[in-house]
Amino acid sequence: MQCARTMGTMTDTTDAITRFHLLLSQQGQELLARLAQEDLTPNNELKISTQLRKEYPVQLVLDAITQHQLRLKATVKFSRAMEMFFTKSGLEQSSSEVIAQYRAKRFTNIAQMADFCCGIGGDLIQLANSKSVLAVDKDPLHLEMAKANAKVYSVVDNISCIESDVRDVDLQTIEGVFIDPARRTTEGRLKTGDSEPSVEWCTDLLRQVKNLAIKAAPGIDHETFPSGWELEFIAIGKDLKEAVAWSPSLSNAKRRATILPTGHTMTEKPGPPVNVQMPGQFILDPNPSVTRAGLVEELARQLDAWKIDEKIAFLSSDAPMSSPFGRTLKVIDSLPWNQKQLPHKLKEHDIGVVDIRRRGLAGDVDQFHRSLKLTGSRTATLIMTRAQEKPWALICLDVD
Ligand SMILES: C[S@@+](CC[C@H](N)C(=O)[O-])C[C@H]1O[C@@H](n2cnc3c(N)ncnc32)[C@H](O)[C@@H]1O
Fold first, then answer.
1. pTM above 0.85, yes or no
2. Ligand 1 pocket: which of 17, 78, 93, 194 to mutate (most atoms within 8 A of CB)
3. N or C: which end of the chain has fewer CB within 10 A?
């Protein structure tokens, strides 16, 4: 592993790096290991911290407690989180292991990669699993953490790193670039759609390198990328996490929806228009990756289902539907939306707990929920939506 620093650093950055090196020192590691044995809670944090300050420097104790808390949060993203290093913004913006691992597979045939804006190394670790990767970030602390984290995953020998603005990096020997531009700065979140560097700048990298992938927020506008690019929306289970745009050489579809960790994936498949009809006996709520990828009609055709409204992403059928791309519910009542009548209907169906899903209909769900005062014994999903343009309610049960 080599490292090069091409930018000057400010005093506070130097201070952050010095403190990080102390965490990496034997004393820092010992302290982090001690914290891992403690059950640190808001109630006992002061007591534990006071005790540790008698044995270790105050700043080191504070930094170790912060790091320990970040590690605990990171366990939802990384299998080795308790050995890794994070900043708050680095963790928040990092790609989780399951997504980075999935995405890295598409670069299998590319030998020399660059990970632009590598942050704390979420993507870097997986890219470097099987190839040499040049890691670039302008934040020296993130770059140091990326190296430490690459060590945790035993891939540090496959990385070289440059502390630099990505705009200044020479790509002559690089065959592929993955870039995850920042969507927040130390001052906070950037406006929706904005990033540093901008998506336009990232897309323009295609002039220098053929194999390019750009990570984007899941709300990204489909029109952002020129034709020939693939836009993939990735969910972990039912939570939509991110989008990634693949340059033409890496693309094999226009739009794709992927669900991890199972790896179910679907792409556009043009076909006849899907019917719009009133709800039948079953409703399917598509996974958000399918909705964002604009593949609801593809899913309807796969399932022989219909749409309940031209603009609403609920599908319906009179036969039970089973798909990894959506959740099926059994409809027990289907009626025009009437806020006064609905509590009685829910009572008639012996509903005591209700999960309200609102799509395409305005209204204060929380206030309505609070006003229900349900006492029944069954759990239901109440869908508040439109059916053939009419405000509609569907009282549904889970399909076993
Ligand atoms: C979204 S994070 C990267 C997360 C990373 N992919 C991961 O999984 O851990 C973005 C990073 O971009 C860096 N960055 C922002 N603008 C940059 C620029 N112009 N040049 C280099 N790095 C930049 C930030 O310092 C931050 O570490």
1. yes
2. 93
3. C
Q: How confident is the model at residue 4 (pLDDT cuts 50, 70, 90)?
A: low
- The CATH class, in words, for 91-266 is alpha beta
> Which residue CA neighbors atom 19 of ligand 1 most closely?
165
Cα(180) to ligand 1 centroid in Å equals 6
- Which residue is it, tokens 């993130």? 142
pLDDT at position 8: 39
Residues 6+ apart with CB under 8 A from 199: 181, 193, 214, 216, 220, 224
- Helices 26-37 and 11-24 pack at an angle, to 10 degrees, of 70
- Over residues 102-159, the pLDDT tens digits come to 999 999 999 999 999 999 999 999 999 989 999 999 999 999 999 999 999 999 999 9
Q: How far is CA 109 from the centre of its chain?
A: 25
CA of 118 to the centre of ligand 1 (A): 5
- State the burial class of residue 40 (Cβ atoms within 10 Å of its Cβ: 0-12, 13-18, 19+): middle
pLDDT of residue 11: 64
Plot region of 239 (φ>0 → left; ψ -120 to 50 → alpha; else → beta): beta
